[in-house]
């Protein structure tokens, strides 16, 4: 897990009250699109610092950043309140006391990056090694809110975040299938293996050529038969 600690961010230990979250991990998002996937990682650090300043500012007045952790689009986990602290994220006493929180640094119209999803999975596995329960919930499961947005909540419900990093390594996407390289007898020394999509396109071209040749031969045979008759 690529962890950015509070110390690395220049922050002291969290002033939030102590707690022992044990139930599981709650998923959050930002209320607006951030576009951080298109920016360097330094923008994620700036976003995290800005979020803490906002949460501790006059509009909220919290003792610290509201979340336990943040997951950025580049695959880093940024420490918020960290281990063994009350949250200010889930909206209920039990939710803040019994569940850790992680916010994906994205908004309602942004899909999480594969690196971001993997970072959440690694965080969950690490927390489970410290005794956290396996459950994963969305913010809206605790409180009447749109958070974590329909896109992330769909991933919560389908178990995407609940898969272990090892299970995730076994995931095979459609792109993986089409780009998988296969040794072919007609390959060259420089290119002995072809991607599945290239094989399909090549086979389709060969079949079309054969169909054309068969059509031409059929027409020729028909013409010869008609001449003899």
TrEMBL record:
<dbReference type="Pfam" id="PF01510">
    <property type="entry name" value="Amidase_2"/>
</dbReference>
<keyword id="KW-0175">Coiled coil</keyword>
<feature type="domain" description="Peptidoglycan recognition protein family">
    <location>
        <begin position="1"/>
        <end position="140"/>
    </location>
</feature>
<feature type="coiled-coil region">
    <location>
        <begin position="200"/>
        <end position="227"/>
    </location>
</feature>
<dbReference type="GO" id="GO:0009253">
    <property type="term" value="P:peptidoglycan catabolic process"/>
</dbReference>
<dbReference type="InterPro" id="IPR036505">
    <property type="entry name" value="Amidase/PGRP_sf"/>
</dbReference>
<comment type="similarity">
    <text>Belongs to the N-acetylmuramoyl-L-alanine amidase 2 family.</text>
</comment>
<dbReference type="InterPro" id="IPR006619">
    <property type="entry name" value="PGRP_domain_met/bac"/>
</dbReference>
<dbReference type="GO" id="GO:0008270">
    <property type="term" value="F:zinc ion binding"/>
</dbReference>
<protein>
    <recommendedName>
        <fullName>Peptidoglycan recognition protein family domain-containing protein</fullName>
    </recommendedName>
</protein>
<dbReference type="InterPro" id="IPR002502">
    <property type="entry name" value="Amidase_domain"/>
</dbReference>
<dbReference type="GO" id="GO:0008745">
    <property type="term" value="F:N-acetylmuramoyl-L-alanine amidase activity"/>
</dbReference>
<dbReference type="InterPro" id="IPR015510">
    <property type="entry name" value="PGRP"/>
</dbReference>
């Amino acid at each position: 897990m690529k962890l950015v600690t509070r110390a690395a961010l220049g922050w002291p230990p969290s002033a939030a009250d102590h707690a022992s979250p044990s139930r599981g991990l709650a998923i959050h998002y930002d209320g607006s699109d951030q576009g951080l996937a298109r920016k360097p990682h330094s923008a994620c650090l700036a976003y995290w610092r800005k979020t803490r300043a906002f949460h501790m500012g006059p509009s909220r007045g919290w003792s610290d950043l509201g979340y336990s952790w943040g997951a950025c689009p580049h695959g880093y986990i940024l420490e918020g309140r960290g281990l063994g602290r009350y949250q200010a994220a889930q909206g209920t006493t039990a939710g803040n006391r019994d569940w850790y929180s992680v916010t994906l640094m994205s908004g309602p119209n942004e899909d999480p990056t594969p690196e971001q999803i993997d970072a959440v999975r690694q965080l969950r596995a690490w927390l489970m090694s410290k005794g956290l329960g396996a459950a994963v919930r969305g913010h809206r499961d605790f409180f009447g809110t749109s958070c974590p947005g329909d896109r992330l909540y769909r991933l919560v419900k389908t178990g995407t975040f609940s898969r272990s990093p090892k299970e995730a390594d076994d995931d095979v996407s459609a792109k993986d299938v089409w780009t998988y390289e296969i040794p072919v007898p007609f390959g060259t020394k420089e290119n002995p293996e072809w991607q599945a999509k290239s094989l399909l396109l090549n086979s389709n071209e060969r079949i079309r050529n054969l169909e054309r040749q068969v059509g031409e031969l059929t027409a020729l045979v028909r013409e010869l038969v008609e001449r003899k008759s």
